[in-house]
Task: structure prediction
Amino acid sequence: MAQITAPEYISPYVVTTSGGLVLDRDVYTMPVGAASILQNYEPSVKGGYRRIDGTTKFASGQVNGSNKVTGVAVFNSGVIAISGTAVKFGTGSAWSSIGTQANTPSRPRFEKYNFNGTDSIIWIDGANTPARYTTGGTLTALNASGAPANATSVAAFKNHIFYAGASAAKQQVQFTVPFDEADYTGTGSGSVKVDTEVVALKSFRESLIIFGKDRIFKLTGSSSSDFAIAPVSRNIGCSDGNSVQEIGGDLIFLAPDGLRTIAGTARIGDVELGTVSKQIQQRINEIGFDNICSTVIRTKSQYRLFYPTIGGSEASAQGIIGVIKSNPQGQIGWEYADLKGVKAASADSDFIGANETVVHGSFDGYVFRQELGNDFDGTNIRAIYRSPDLTMGDAGIRKSMQRINLNFDTEGSVNASLFVKYDFEDASSPQPAAYTLTTQSTAAVYGTGAYGTSVYGATGIPIVRQSVEGSGFTVVIRVEDESGNPPITLKGFELEFTPGARM
Result:
């Protein structure tokens, strides 16, 4: 084979990490800043990929023995947790009973509202009549005549409480008297019917969105006298009502063809649908429906969808992180990552004072606070970033790698592993062993570091410089962090290589 000799010089190739997990592109169309593996690294609204924060038990003990925590809700100064038939309230130290329910619920859903100057929360669970709690009070069963016995969806809209999903009327949406969540039959109450099984209700702007299994509707108006229903989509439904969340002025939900949003446009009353998860459709297709739950982290413009296998281990539990981001051109889009190691049976988030509190209930009776600590309740977080297979602009030239300079935004010390692989990780090609990345050493002044591993700057954004070996037509780097240190953010990296001959 003829060879054309190329001049020997070190060529730099800079990659800015952005785009998130992308599974629908080949090596030649993959955005260079995207990730082919992105596990427990969240796309940051500040740029780069940040290892996620940890989880810590919200209170010292289990809510109700080892019973699964089927429902959690952040409410005022604490958290409501439902486990078995027990309903308890906690502020972070211990759990206090606020009542019991007759039947063990499966998947409670909550709605927070204020009709008469009192913050209240109401929930349904598919097994009991609705229940209500107000700060400092106790559970009140809303079991007056006409109460839905086993509704699965609830929402507050135009000063009414709406219910749906009762087993005897799965296509019916029932609403209470205005300003009275306990009156189901008085003046102003009523019901409407749609031609699909209702799986979720969500108040959105000036409409109540009615999510059905295979259709979506919106209810508009102000009272029983002018409530009206119009279709949003007769072709798309919601696969699981527990996936519905409001984020960024939109509603996101899991549909049969992926994650979708409902967005109101400038045209009054118009609603558009759009798929936002095309780049991770492969992962969407893997979702099991054993126990889906979701929440949002508003301060990070982040949506989290959990879909653990009930019989699976904590370490193997799967989820998806989705982040709304804007690119340099001002266009808004979604970036994704895999979440692994959080086995959530239920989840919620809200503000307690100025602090956003994110919680999930476990399958073994505990409530955990997310976004707290550097590990998963004592277990180190395994975070993995894998780049695309990079050709550096020319797949026909062999590159001899010299050095990789990694740009980190740090919240503590860097202690990670770097893997450099060549030619699509071909087993027949020599592949170097892992390199250890660390900022434990004394920081170097920029421009004076020794050739090898060094750090530029002791704080802020250090550049970890690592000499590497090997050559190939393509190169992929993988950064793994399982240190137990505070999170690091990989902002980008620079590959220094010597171009070889064209083959």
Observations:
- The first helix runs from residue 281 to 284.
- The chain has three domains: 11-40+384-502, 55-64+240-379, 108-238.
